[in-house]
Specification:
The chain is of the alpha/beta class. 41% of the residues lie in helices and 18% in strands. Helix 2 (83-96) crosses helix 3 (109-120).
């Protein structure tokens, strides 16, 4: 089934906005609601990662999914992308859309960005959802594998390399469709994207990852109500890593989704949507 069929019956619009000098692609739905929710994708991703979640959330919130700096079809300035750059971009997007505060829901890298933003820009954040979030630990073997697969997928963007990168995200690789491969192929074959991927993947090298890992002091700065969502089969980290993150943030709630890998919002959208909506409404 096409990912875009998920959006049938949901009123939405797509566009570009200048966010702090970054031409930023976004999808907006649920514009009649007061509170805003922003979905933040993972490394090498794009806003389509949330097509299975946007319609349900748009019934209750003004929802945005964006291509973060360096990703998707947003601008890709040539420098390594660290959490501070992503957080600055998110805040600039809020400014561009006239939004004072928003809920942030981030997967993997997007979770790291949500953590960092909540710690360093608390006035812009309501609640945060950290979905298999990065920035908690460094596993050299896992980072090396993600780095090599991602660089290969962008440097030699054939469908085999891209499919391998997508299949890594899933507990069940058969979930990956030809449409998903083609979508990522179109992103990764943009002129200059191989260089952008090098800048994205800096956070999977010790040179950049270790200095940028979230500290206990940074977690202590987070006042936003927090939901930490992990999975039973996350290929990037264990449940214990998620528990460490939840313990570090005062009052954080911890949930584990069964039979999912690194993309629970896509693999089990019904459970993901229910847990997140319950948390946001509480």
């Amino acid at each position: 089934m096409s990912m875009w069929l998920e959006m049938l019956g949901c009123e939405y619009r797509m566009g570009y906005v200048n966010a702090g000098g970054i031409r930023t692609r976004y999808l907006e739905a649920g514009s009649g609601h007061r509170d805003t929710l922003i979905f933040l994708h993972g490394s090498g991703g794009y806003l389509e990662a949330y097509l299975r979640n946007i319609p349900e959330h748009a019934k209750h919130y003004r929802v945005f999914a964006i291509d973060m700096i360096g990703h998707g079809f947003s601008d890709k300035p040539d420098h390594p992308y660290e959490p501070r750059h992503y957080a600055t971009h998110v805040c600039a997007f809020l400014d561009a859309m006239g939004i004072e505060r928003a809920h942030l829901s981030g997967e993997s890298l997007g979770g790291w960005v949500a953590e960092y933003t909540a710690a360093h820009h608390p006035d812009r954040v309501n609640k945060i959802i950290l979905n298999t979030a990065a920035g908690v630990h460094y596993d050299p073997a896992v980072s090396a594998r993600i780095h090599s697969m991602s660089i290969a997928a962008a440097g030699t963007p054939n469908r085999e390399n891209i499919r391998k990168r997508l299949e890594w995200l899933m507990l069940d690789p058969s979930i990956v469709t030809e449409e998903m491969v083609d979508m990522r192929y179109r992103v990764y074959t943009q002129p200059g994207f191989a260089r952008a991927m090098e800048n994205i993947m800096c956070l999977h090298t010790p040179e950049y990852r270790l200095p940028n890992l979230m500290t206990e002091q940074e977690w202590s700065l987070i006042e936003a109500p927090t939901l930490v969502m992990w999975t039973s089969h996350d290929p990037g980290s264990t449940i214990e890593v998620g528990q460490k993150l939840a313990r570090g943030i005062r009052g954080a709630r911890f949930e584990v989704m069964s039979n999912c890998g690194h993309w629970p919002q896509f693999e089990d959208p019904a459970t993901f949507n229910r847990l997140q909506l319950e948390f946001l409404a509480a």
